[in-house]
Design goal:
The structure holds 2 protein chains of 2 kinds.
Chain A: H1 2-18, E1 22-25, E2 40-43, E3 50-54, E4 59-63, H2 68-77, E5 80-81, H3 94-100, H4 107-110, E6 117-123, E7 129-133, H5 145-149, E8 158-165, E9 167-168, E10 172-179, H6 182-193, E11 199-205, E12 208-215, H7 217-227, E13 230-231, H8 234-245, E14 258-262, E15 276-279, E16 284-288, H9 296-302, E17 306-311, H10 325-338
Parallel strand pairs in A: 1-2
Antiparallel strand pairs in A: 3-4, 4-8, 5-9, 6-7, 6-8, 10-12, 10-13, 11-12, 11-15, 14-16, 14-17, 15-16
Chain B: H1 3-8, H2 13-20, E1 26-27, H3 30-33, E2 50-52, H4 57-70, E3 74-77, E4 94-97, E5 104-108, E6 113-116, H5 122-129, E7 134-135, H6 148-154, H7 161-164, H8 167-170, E8 171-177, E9 183-187, H9 198-202, E10 211-218, E11 220-221, E12 225-233, H10 236-248, E13 255-260, H11 261-271, E14 281-289, H12 291-307, E15 312-315, H13 319-330, H14 332-339, E16 342-345, E17 348-349, H15 355-369, E18 373-378, E19 383-390, H16 395-414, H17 430-436, H18 439-452, H19 467-479
Parallel strand pairs in B: 2-4, 3-4
Antiparallel strand pairs in B: 1-2, 5-6, 6-10, 7-11, 8-9, 8-10, 12-14, 12-15, 13-14, 13-18, 16-19, 17-19, 18-19
The chains are: A alpha+beta, B alpha+beta.
The structure holds flavin-adenine dinucleotide (FAD) (2 copies).
Chain lengths: 353, 491
Amino acid sequence: MQAVLAGFKERIRAARVAGLPLELRGGGSKRFLGRAAQGEILDTRDYSGVISYEPTELVITARAGTPLAEIQALLARKRQMLAFEPPAFGLATVGGTVAAGLSGPRRPQAGALRDHLLGVKLLDGRGDELRFGGQVMKNVAGYDVSRLMAGAMGTLGLLLEVSLKVLPMPAEQRTLRFSMSQSEALVALNRWAGQALPITASCWSGGVLHLRLEGARAAVQAARARLGGEELGEAAAISFWRDVVEQHHGFFAGVRRLWRISVPSTAAPMCADQPSLIEWGGALRWLRDPPPETDLFAEAARLGGSARLFRRTPEDEVFDPPLTPSVAQIQERLKRAFDPDGIFNRGRLCAAW
Amino acid sequence: MPSSKLASGGDGLIEALRAVLPEDSVLVETEALRPYECDGLATFRQLPRVVVLPETEEQVAAILASCHARGVPVVARGAGTSLSGGAMPHAQGVLLAMAKFRQIVRIDPLARIAVVQPGVRNKAISEAANPYGLYYAPDPSSQIACTIGGNVAENAGGVHCLKYGLTVHNVLRVRAVTITGEIVEFGSHALDTPGFDGLALLNGSEGMLAVITEVSVRLLPLPQTARCVLAAFDDVVRAGEAVAAIIAAGIIPAGLEMMDQAATRAVEAFVKAGYPLAAAAILLVESDGTAEEVEEEIGRITDLLQAQGASEIRVSRDEAERLRFWAGRKAAFPAAGRISPDYYCMDGTIPRKRLGEMLQAIAAMEQRHRLRCINVFHAGDGNLHPLILFDAASADEQERAEAFGAEILEHSVALGGTITGEHGVGVEKLGQMCVQFGEAELEMFHRVKAAFDPVGLLNPGKAVPTLQRCAEYGHLHVHHGQLPHPELERF
Ligand SMILES: Cc1cc2nc3c(=O)[nH]c(=O)nc-3n(C[C@H](O)[C@H](O)[C@H](O)COP(=O)(O)OP(=O)(O)OC[C@H]3O[C@@H](n4cnc5c(N)ncnc54)[C@H](O)[C@@H]3O)c2cc1C
Ligand SMILES: Cc1cc2nc3c(=O)[nH]c(=O)nc-3n(C[C@H](O)[C@H](O)[C@H](O)COP(=O)(O)OP(=O)(O)OC[C@H]3O[C@@H](n4cnc5c(N)ncnc54)[C@H](O)[C@@H]3O)c2cc1C
């Protein structure tokens, strides 16, 4: 591994001297997100392997190129999991997963990927090796640079190692199904979320709401009795949620433009007559192929959230909403702090850098 | 800028502040400044040049812009309960007290969000949310006094954080003003926000990046019920192993705290909680949720504690008894104050499995530094709060207490942990920052600060040491012939 690391440093220093950017790539499964990065590919997959896993500490530390599937299999053997439920897509690496910063269905209850990121080791744009955070749950020494890496899409540094908090798998899991309209579902989801119910995932699409209950056996049974609905068999439930996580649900089939809209869970339905899929108790809304004239950036902002064009056609040029000028300035300065010559993933998050 | 000019007011600062604030909101007389000279860590005191008490965001922006124009440092202050000197004033600077920002702007029970001003007390948020069956989970022991602004700036934790997360996990959006007077927002009422995660940086930033003017927090449904198990152990190492065993069994309790014998004895005399005084350590393990859930979890916890060799196990039978179990833990700080003229509260985090080892190391340090130490832990998080007892009237004892504290923190790093779990670095732990981080990381912290505050006027001299200072800290320790962690880089 030392040789691989030395190779990375060498590539970074050379890129810096030549002023030529690098595209950081793990499994390459996420290249559809955002703009295409410029530059020569730096493949992280040779820097791989779990460094430590301590079930009693609830922490796993792995090199960035480690396949996510390998980590999930290892945790499952101890009945533990990554509670933010990232997709297990065959190719994804743990570094790419952290850099992409996406979280799955359990996000409203268990927190986002960033909430489970305890520490990182990275190479900055000078080729310096830096370590932030660590393997303990509570740590406020210095700024929280680790969490800054979640969702930064590899524009701030090359992740080398990540330490993630893991959680026990719930003892019991049941999935319920209800027939209801989008607006009925939004009201019900918000009401339930304000009560002590063991709900850990929700998905509404095409007039059907699916609800996942997880936790202590007795609690799940009591909630199931209280909520009613129709129960799915175990196998059907598992495959249903896997399809949601990995976007194999029928809603995603053949989509051209897919919008991912993050709004307060109580926001009114958007483009109500267009096909949509709603997760996160109402806080995440997927819209497929909405009429091109609707300005979804503005519409999401009006509702207190933001929109992102998640899957696009080659003609689409703008994927993310603009930031306010003062926040954009801070972000640009952060980028320069980590990567003064702009060699990592140039153009990926922001056309200017 | 020469300080004599500042002291004379020749830069027009006071006049500029008076132009934006009512007269009684600009304090310059020494008696008026006195209450602000330190925070909860009274060893570090400094009178500010002026104290201002704004009540609107526009006033904060105008104050910051005025300071920026004149190169005057600014220190924000909430309730002043920080235990690391983070809110200690700057001699030539403005102390920006946020005490008048006391409004709960809005509670949205359906969306489970509270929008509050930074001067609102932590406890007041839960009180306001209570009629809707909701509460705010992070619960620092100082929650009746400390403010949410200070909680965000310190990324405060508490007993509930094992299950419900720290402040950073429960804050959705922060509005803040930069040193140039610009208003910025990080996060949103939606769960994901585009761009870099500035919200993560602001949590725990110790007033170094921006002044927080509004905070939106996540509210959770009040658990239907809660019960607590009190378990006694004859041996501290076994108590530490029991903590690991509970977690390994897949249980994340609502609270998992540990007190050593010295701590239980100190509090028992004070609160009469009925703690077993013969035990070397006690654990408090709380379960919350629906009645069925709690029943099931308490059963599993007691079985595990039995198997781990607890000498006594009690389960709270009613709310009164549950609160009595906690009363002692919550009174640990005042109890220490009762049995000793002064105490020094440390705050390190270590991997849970090393709790026993750490307690043994602290016992050895008690001998070496000739001072007593009582230990209370957020054991479930591995976050320790040793209270070193001393008498500040004796300069020698004070010095030994500080050396003792520094050794505990440096040992935390050696065990794979950190020098602060929730109280922050402030001015107190600048030396230990040089033990935990190398030159490259510290330089990066300075660059991150500069991205928000290029001139370095917000809370200067706190949280991140200069490399120069680290060099001096390194020398000091070599001089005493006890260089800790020789494997770590020095400069
Ligand atoms: C809702 C949703 C839908 C998804 N849909 C798909 C899908 O359709 N197809 C699919 O294959 N996967 C999909 N995924 C899975 C996703 O691709 C993976 O979770 C993971 O993010 C990709 O990892 P990777 O190693 O392939 O990253 P890559 O695609 O290689 O990289 C992702 C980003 O991370 C950066 N990066 C990678 N490694 C590092 C590193 N070590 N340090 C710094 N930056 C790095 C890259 O530069 C890039 O910006 C989806 C995930 C979600 C949540
Ligand atoms: C008895 C006791 C028990 C404690 N228990 C705990 C505990 O269990 N857990 C825990 O985490 N802490 C605990 N603390 C420490 C302290 O209460 C917390 O750090 C708290 O978050 C500080 O809040 P404050 O309002 O008093 O902030 P202050 O002490 O006034 O300020 C703390 C820091 O925050 C900054 N700040 C304050 N307001 C703002 C603002 N609006 N914008 C920007 N920066 C700001 C200040 O500049 C300073 O750096 C305890 C303290 C005491 C005295």
